[in-house]
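From the shared-data thread, chain only:
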Amino acid sequence: MRKADRATGLVAWWGAGGGRTESARWTVTVAVLLASAFGASATGCLSSDQREVIVYTALDREFSQPIFAEFTRRSGIVVRAKFDTEATKTVGLTEAIRAERNRPRCDLFWNNEILNTMRLKREGLLAPYRSPAAATFPDQVRCSQGMWHGFAARARVLLVNTDLTAADQTPDSIEDLVDPRWQGRVGVAKPLFGTTATHAACLFTYWGDARAQDFFLSLKKNARIMAGNKQVALAVASGALAFGLTDTDDAIIECEKGLPVRIVYPDQQDGAMGTLFIPNSLALIRGAAHASEARQLIDYLLSPAVETRLAQGRSAQIPLNRQVSVQPRVETPFTIRAMRVDFEAATQAWDAAAEFLREMLTGPTA
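Structure, as tokens:
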């Protein structure tokens, strides 16, 4: 696909989404524990003249750590990364940033989605930085105020075990997750964290509250709610589930092991809503102690080399930089029907959606 076509496709995919966020009320217990753990687990001593940057990273360690190592090799700046657990990302890291607002520990937030990044912006916890490296990204994936930068997208897909699903019964929509014939044999990550939370917020915006609530109530009855997207992919690959909703980075790993699984991009029928694509996001923290180093790392992470590496690596993430020419191993917003989303509206809808989802998950199953 020509670069001009990719840019046009991205505009259609992104819709009218902007960069505003809304404040939310969350408990800070997880954040306090994370902050304590970070202080206790940071290892290694720096010489007085050695530069460093502290990054809170929601992207899986196996994907982000090698990139940090290469940045350190090139720049001499040591990256001290705080990773979160699969069960609480990205809420745990977001809560840590909130808890530390008066004395920030984090310099740069690398989020594996965009919802919580936009919420931090709304709360005034981010600082502007207009990276020169962002100039080759479409406007739709960067904040007009320089508060966040989107890059390296992933798709929300169904991973299907081909041994457990007949060819004429292969699911083709996320609504197959609530089909009673699959009860107990499908899975989804807990919809309060990470990309699953972003997906939930987008569904509340796209469908409206009533239909979205009905969907998630049916999902609770029909599906196994798991700790994270990786756990869903592993359960499908092992045969514990017939299919499940996950991200392309977790799904492609199981496919490339040669296991009896395949990726289905949901809701591709005429008139259907399409497959949701979610970018990673980068944001400089307000009051960062190592702001200069963090800006250098943002420039590096937005470089064509990094998106190429993420696309060619095990995570198979989707480049958004116009200068990247590598062909991804997964479908992109430019090759299939993509869900038209307004991430700004989804962020605004999230508080009410999250309250419903928390009550639903803790309440009895009807």
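The two ends are 48 Å apart (CA to CA).
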